[in-house]
């Protein structure tokens, strides 16, 4: 569609499983919305779409795409924004390279990804690709703070239908390991700027001064942090943990966020790959470099580079044999934790392991206790404390557990997740200084070559907005409300200076507690174990971690979360679920035509989006549609219409049929809008009468491989054929 007229509701075009699901769900949404004169249009923020948009100038006319992400970035700063945001790929280097390859094979004349750019032209190409890499979408769209919680119906369903949880025993050898010194946590310094400032970041060495970055501007009141991770301390820590894992007889695993922490964490990941194969790097380092090995890209890419060097391969085998067993991503295919930096992402991986009773999958295809290595100690205590809690108290009971809601400081690239332009791998020993335009040296650190230095910041307006949201939410619920802030951590101490006066001015200090992450974890687990509820008011990283951790324990998955971003300029951004884009689900669809993606997150977001439209534009028909979406979502839960995991059982497409049917039935039954009732009564009838035929046609589609015409870029017609296989349903929806 044309990008000049903004639809009433923007539904994002994304990647992988949620994009497959959209091929079935979006036509239903558009059909229902049209009945109320509401337009629902797409904007392409997929990895493939973003690559094509970035290189459009160099592509054939009919291949070009507009920069939808940039347009959405503008839209979310306006009161008109009403965006349903599905999860998209935050690409690691191997994923980006794979997407470029697929597009090249499809005839797009894209430049190869330059691993080691030398010429200016290569550097320019690399710079473009770097802007697409990692978490490049969410920070642009998140012009507001985050409010994530389970809708009451979803929580009730989970309590009435508790999922299976792995048993925790007191003698479990599973534990969390993190650095006790030399990490980001221990080196952090922080200050709040009393006036607007522009900063430069320089590295002073024996050879003179290098400017790492200049022209970084901050409004008055910004909290500016600086910290670094010592490469030497990291290497010593990793080597020691590999040895300890072997002694303890557990699996070695590394958990970080190479996608969102797109500059720092791939480097840390590379250190782990090197530590794992240290004897091989010691012996063959030069030859491996010659072969183009880049440890940051993972063991998978490394093996690809050295596969024709038998002496290196033999030494890798010998090294592996001497190492403890590794936690596996896919033991059948020999994909280890260290193969691809984006395969193990801490927010999803740690909760899954904890839900399983502290077990990870080993190379033998069996579950084992695991050493969970989380190098930086800023947030690792959350997982450490959770594990200790379950060892002492046994697993959580989802039938009786209360809930942990989250309010996260996220707007305007707050905190670590916005730190990429000011993160550097230090080339040479010296002093990094952050110098303001009036000459003040705000922060200074002595560093060694290889250290990872970064500065993160949080602006005043988002901080104030976050505290106000917390006050509103606490008032609305009466729940125990905890700011997860550590008075002994530099950054958190600055935030506490903001939080306390705002609470005081509102006369609500007695309604809030402030606790360091470890203590807050314990308090929250104690609260929900008693069946009571609590609000976790956190910074951006804990927002991300906790909105997977608690839902995965309470509801089995974070896919069912309601995830609202109240944009600071008045618009609404409705994220679907809190989890990822589920690459495993795509594999399953491609191999056996079964899609187990659960669209409950989309249903929840859709209801909110319609209701927001009603409030925003006084559109009462939108309210009727929104209320009916809620009834339909309830229907899906009450009648267990969510997708099953196994081929041959109802899948994502069946759940969409039921969603359409319950939605139409709710519209037909309501009396707020007679026109809508009259319009949807015949559809409700047709959907009910067609049940046997429709579910039969959907079932018949499953069981053999499905071709959607691509992975990163599907063929629209093929995708529609796969995802809309019921002629009877299509005839009703149109
Ligand atoms: N908001 C965003 O844009 C986000 C994007 N991502 C991106 O997603 C990709 C993969 O991330 P990763 O963290 O590994 O997570 P995954 O997408 O692999 O999700 C982890 C697991 O959670 C379950 N799951 C998540 N969502 C659903 C759903 N709607 N229905 C059913 N099950 C669900 C699946 O479990 P099972 O397989 O057992 O069914 C899945 O394997 C990365 O590119 C990452 O950057 C990640 C988080 C958020
Ligand atoms: O942007 C991303 O890469 C992932 C976002 C995420 O995990 C979250 O917000 O929960
Ligand atoms: Mg997350």
From TrEMBL:
UniProt: NADP(+) binding residues: 85-90, 138, 580-581, 585, 596-598, 645
Pfam families linked: IDH
InterPro entries membership: Isocitrate_DH_NADP_mono
Chain residues that bind Mg(2+): 347, 544, 548
Biological processes per GO annotation: glyoxylate cycle; tricarboxylic acid cycle
Family statement drawn from the similarity comment of this UniProt entry: Belongs to the monomeric-type IDH family.
Native organism taxonomy: Bacteria, Pseudomonadati, Pseudomonadota, Alphaproteobacteria, Rhodobacterales
Alphabetical list of SUPFAM superfamilies matching this protein: Isocitrate/Isopropylmalate dehydrogenase-like
Name this polypeptide is given: Isocitrate dehydrogenase [NADP]
Protein residues bound to D-threo-isocitrate: 148, 543
């Amino acid at each position: 569609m044309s990008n000049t007229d903004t639809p009433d509701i923007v539904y994002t075009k994304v990647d992988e499983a949620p994009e497959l699901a959209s091929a079935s769900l979006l036509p239903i949404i558009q059909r229902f919305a049209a009945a109320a004169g509401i337009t629902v249009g797409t904007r392409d923020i997929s990895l493939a779409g973003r690559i094509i948009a970035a290189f459009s100038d160099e592509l054939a006319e009919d291949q070009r795409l507009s920069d939808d992400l940039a347009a959405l970035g503008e839209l979310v700063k306006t009161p008109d924004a009403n965006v349903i945001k599905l999860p998209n790929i935050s690409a690691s280097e191997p994923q980006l390279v794979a997407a470029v390859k697929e597009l090249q094979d499809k005839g797009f004349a894209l430049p190869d990804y330059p691993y080691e750019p030398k010429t200016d032209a290569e550097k320019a190409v690399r710079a473009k690709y770097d802007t697409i890499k990692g978490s490049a979408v969410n920070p642009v769209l998140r012009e507001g703070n985050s409010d994530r919680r389970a809708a009451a119906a979803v929580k009730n369903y989970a309590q009435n239908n508790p999922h299976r949880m792995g048993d925790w025993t007191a003698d479990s050898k599973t534990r969390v390991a993190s650095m006790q010194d030399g990490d980001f946590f221990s080196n952090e310094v922080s200050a709040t700027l009393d006036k607007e400032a522009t900063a430069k970041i320089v590295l002073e060495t024996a050879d003179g001064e290098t400017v790492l970055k200049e022209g970084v501007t901050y409004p008055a009141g910004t909290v500016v942090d600086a910290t670094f991770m010592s490469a030497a301390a990291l290497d010593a820590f990793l080597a020691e943990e590999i040895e300890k894992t072997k002694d303890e007889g557990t699996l070695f695993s590394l958990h970080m966020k190479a996608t969102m922490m797109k500059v720092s964490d791939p480097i840390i990941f590379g250190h782990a790959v090197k530590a794992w194969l240290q004897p091989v790097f010691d012996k063959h380092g030069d030859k491996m470099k010659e072969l183009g090995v880049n440890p940051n890209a993972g063991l998978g890419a490394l093996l690809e580079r050295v596969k024709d060097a038998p002496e290196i391969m033999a030494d890798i085998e010998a090294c592996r044999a001497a190492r403890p067993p590794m936690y596996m991503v896919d033991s059948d295919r020999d994909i280890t934790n260290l193969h691809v930096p984006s395969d193990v992402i801490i927010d999803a991986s740690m909760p899954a392991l904890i839900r399983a009773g502290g077990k990870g999958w080993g190379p033998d295809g069996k579950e084992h206790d695991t050493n969970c290595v989380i190098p930086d100690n800023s947030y690792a205590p959350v997982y450490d404390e959770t594990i200790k809690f379950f060892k002492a108290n046994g697993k959580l009971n989802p039938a009786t557990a209360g809930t942990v809601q989250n309010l996260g400081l996220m707007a305007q690239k707050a905190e670590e997740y916005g730190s990429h332009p000011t993160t550097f791998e230090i080339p040479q020993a010296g002093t990094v200084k952050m110098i303001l335009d009036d000459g003040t040296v705000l922060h200074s650190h002595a560093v060694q070559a290889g250290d990872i230095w970064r500065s993160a910041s949080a602006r005043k307006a988002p901080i104030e907005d976050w505290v106000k949201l917390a006050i509103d939410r606490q008032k609305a619920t009466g729940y125990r409300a905890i700011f997860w802030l550590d008075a002994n951590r530099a950054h958190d101490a600055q935030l506490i200076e903001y939080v306390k006066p705002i609470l005081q001015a509102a006369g609500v200090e007695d309604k809030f507690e402030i606790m360091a992450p470890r203590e807050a974890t314990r308090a929250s687990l104690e609260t929900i174990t008693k069946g009571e509820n609590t609000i976790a008011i956190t910074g951006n990283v804990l927002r991300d971690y906790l909105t997977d951790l608690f839902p995965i324990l309470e509801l089995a998955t974070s896919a069912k979360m309601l995830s609202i971003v109240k944009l600071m300029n008045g618009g609404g951004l409705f994220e679907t679920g809190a989890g990822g884009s589920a690459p495993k689900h795509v594999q399953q669809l491609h191999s056996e035509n079964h899609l187990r993606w659960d669209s409950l997150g989309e249903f929840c977001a859709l209801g909110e989006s319609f209701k927001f439209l009603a409030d925003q534009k006084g559109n009462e028909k939108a309210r009727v549609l929104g209320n009916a979406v809620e009834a339909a979502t309830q229907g899906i839960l009450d009648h267990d219409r969510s997708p099953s995991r196994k081929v041959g059982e109802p899948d994502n497409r069946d759940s969409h049929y039921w969603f359409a049917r319950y939605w139409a039935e709710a519209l037909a039954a309501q009396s707020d809008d007679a026109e809508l009732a009259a319009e949807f009564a015949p559809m409700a009838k047709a959907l009910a009468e067609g049940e046997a035929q429709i579910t039969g046609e959907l079932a018949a589609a499953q069981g053999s491989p499905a071709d959607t015409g691509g992975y990163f870029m599907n063929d629209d017609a093929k995708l529609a054929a796969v995802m809309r296989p019921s002629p009877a349903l299509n005839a009703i929806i149109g």
